[in-house]
Design a protein that fits this description.
Elements (H helix, E strand, L loop, with lengths): L4 H10 L4 E3 L18 H4 L3 E6 L13 H12 L5 E4 L18 E4 L11 H8 L3 E4 L3 E10 L4 E10 L3 E9 L4 E7 L7 E10 L5 E8 L4 E4 L2 E2 L1 H10 L2
Parallel strand pairs: 1-2, 2-3
Antiparallel strand pairs: 4-5, 5-12, 6-7, 7-10, 8-9, 8-11, 11-12, 11-13
Length: 239
């Protein structure tokens, strides 16, 4: 039994577990993770990130999950290295319920499929951000974000999709503000595999992520990638 947040954190560390903030800033998590930003457990690597759901479904936007994006972007601008995990609420199921069409999927990078006794390898990869989220209609066959010269980075994405694509967003932060560049993809067709590359000028960038969305509102979302050059510079300076 645990009697406090500190007890829970000790249990997590003892059992080599991981924690993330489910449906941040809403429902039972209203005010969180903002209220715990100064705690030891939120700073710990075992508290790896925040949940992403395809909500709110704001039809004025060409993408889903705006609230969760705002959370992870804010956290990374604060200097945290936090990631996203796709989640879904399942309260009651029957034989007539359809799951696949409504569930978000976490695609995880792994050298092999571990057996049940070593499934923690999958959780390790997710905690490190070696995964992406998909609503199912758009899949990243490959994606990378790499530093490319001073204050620049290169984004490469290979996709396969069910519906025509609509738009790509490359989002990055400089530690103070979040910046977004969009790339229209309206010349694509259904059931296509595509390759894209974008080089961005991003002064003092700390982290970046990419997402691609189709005409039906589905999409694929990378986790943030951090500027290793910036991290190396800070370490050398003792920051």
């Amino acid at each position: 039994r645990v009697g406090s947040a500190e007890d829970m954190f000790r249990l997590v560390r003892q059992e080599h577990g991981y924690v993330y903030e489910t449906h941040p800033r809403t429902k039972g998590s209203t005010g969180f993770p903002d209220k715990i930003l100064n705690t030891d457990y939120f700073h710990d690597a075992s508290y790896f990130g925040s949940g992403w759901k395809a909500m709110p479904s704001d039809l004025s936007l060409p993408y889903l999950g705006a609230r969760a994006f705002k959370v992870v972007d804010d956290l990374n601008n604060m200097g945290f290295h936090k990631t996203l995990v796709g989640e879904v609420d399942v309260f009651q199921l029957s034989r007539q319920d359809e799951l696949y069409a409504h569930m978000n999927v976490n695609y995880v990078e792994a050298a092999h499929l571990p057996d049940s006794d070593h499934s923690i390898e999958i959780i390790h990869a997710m905690a490190e951000g070696r995964s992406f989220i998909s609503t199912g209609e758009v899949v990243f066959r490959h994606h990378s974000i790499q530093r490319s010269g001073q204050n620049m980075f290169l984004v490469r994405v290979e996709t396969s999709s069910t519906f025509p694509l609509r738009i790509a967003y490359v989002v990055w932060g400089d530690g103070m503000q979040t910046h977004t560049e969009s790339f229209p993809l309206e010349d694509t067709r259904e059931f296509q595999s595509q390759s894209f590359a974008w080089k961005l000028t991003a002064p003092n960038w700390k982290w970046a992520r990419v997402s691609i969305w189709d005409t039906a509102g589905g999409g694929a979302i990378s986790n943030p990638v951090w500027n290793q050059e910036d991290a190396t510079r800070k370490k050398a300076a003792g920051e």
